[in-house]
Write a structure and sequence with these properties.
Elements: E1 13-18, E2 21-24, E3 28-34, E4 45-56, E5 64-69, E6 72-80, E7 83-87, E8 92-95, E9 100-104, E10 109-115, H1 117-122, E11 124-134, E12 145-149, E13 156-158, E14 164-170, E15 172-173, E16 176-177, E17 186-193, E18 198-202, E19 208-215, E20 217-220, E21 223-226, E22 229-233, E23 239-244, E24 250-257, E25 265-267, E26 270-272, H2 275-286
Antiparallel strand pairs: 1-22, 2-3, 3-4, 4-11, 5-10, 6-9, 6-11, 7-8, 7-10, 9-12, 13-14, 14-17, 15-16, 17-24, 18-23, 19-22, 19-24, 20-21, 20-23, 25-26
């Protein structure tokens, strides 16, 4: 009988930096991990924004008014607050704490993401993340699709000691698989580690990987990182080691994906493979072929 053993080789932190503050939409306060001066993109990932945390006053309605998308996917993960989304094809819904919306824009649509009625009426904290994932050339013009997934449906796993918790949005962690269907292999896990805890996540050498620290501090791939910092890992191993070196819970997103390797042409909310395709996207939007949202 032939047996194959895989040696664990740990990835190192190649870059650690603080996500700079930014604004987008109708004055929404952000920390934009990328694109920026440190990282322009991390194939297949195009953008990661931390929305807030922002305290809304009653009557405050800052959000993302109607805007188009084509050629990629947006993943919205809400930690607190409520966001209402609508689009030009009649879809609508409300995201609440812990919920995830995985939207495949594909051939294009116009949508809005605004504070839900309760947040506008009563005020409160808005905190969440939006990730943009590129689509392979063959999927650029597929029909738009939503995977609205409530917090109750997203699997949560724990290690034997109860010191590590993994909310598995996509991919697999601690032997538990996410329920969201992805076009290419994606790992998206919200990890929490108690002080002194260590966690090892297997990630194929072929995939790009990074982490965003939400709260606390720790060592990731040998690099020290704290709140609002981004850790980009090299591809020199098949696993990432994370340790909580602080005195409070370490909370972070760990994200990895298989590179697509196709040319990237981007202009605002459109991401295609060529300048000609971008011009067509602009023309289609202006002509109303992506629908209209008032």
């Amino acid at each position: 009988m032939n047996t194959t053993t895989t040696t664990t080789e740990y990835r190192a932190a190649s870059r650690v930096f603080t996500a700079p503050k930014a604004h987008d939409g109708d004055g929404v306060e952000l920390r934009r991990a990328f694109p920026g001066t440190t990282v322009t993109d991390l194939d297949p990932f195009l953008l990661l924004d931390q929305m807030g945390p922002t305290e809304f006053r009653p009557g405050d309605a800052r959000g993302f008014p109607p805007h188009p998308h084509r050629g990629f996917e947006t993943v919205t993960y809400l930690l607190s607050g409520e966001m209402q989304h609508r689009d030009s094809w009649g879809n609508h819904g409300v995201l609440r704490p812990g919920d995830v919306q995985w939207m495949t824009a594909g051939s294009g649509l116009v949508h809005s993401e605004m504070p839900a009625e309760s947040l506008r009426r009563e005020g409160g904290r808005l905190h969440g993340f939006q990730l943009w994932i590129n689509l392979p050339r063959k999927d650029k013009m597929i029909a738009p699709r939503y995977q609205d997934t409530s917090a109750a449906r997203i699997p949560v796993a724990h290690n034997a000691e109860g010191t590590v918790t993994a909310k598995v949005i996509a991919g697999e962690a601690l032997g538990t698989r996410g329920v969201i269907d992805t076009r290419i292999p994606i790992l998206y896990v919200h990890l929490t580690l108690e002080p002194g805890a260590t966690y090892i996540q297997e990630i194929p050498k072929t995939e790009n990987a990074f982490a965003f620290i939400i709260d606390g501090q720790g060592t990731l791939g040998g690099g020290r990182a704290a709140e609002n910092q981004v850790v980009v890992f090299d591809r020199g191993g098949n696993a990432v080691e994370i340790s909580n070196t602080g005195t409070k819970t370490l909370s972070l997103l760990l994200i990895a994906g298989e590179p697509i390797g196709h040319p990237v042409a981007r202009y605002g909310p459109f991401v295609m493979n060529s300048r000609e395709e971008l011009l067509q996207a602009v023309n289609d939007f202006q002509a109303g072929r992506m629908g209209v949202l008032d």
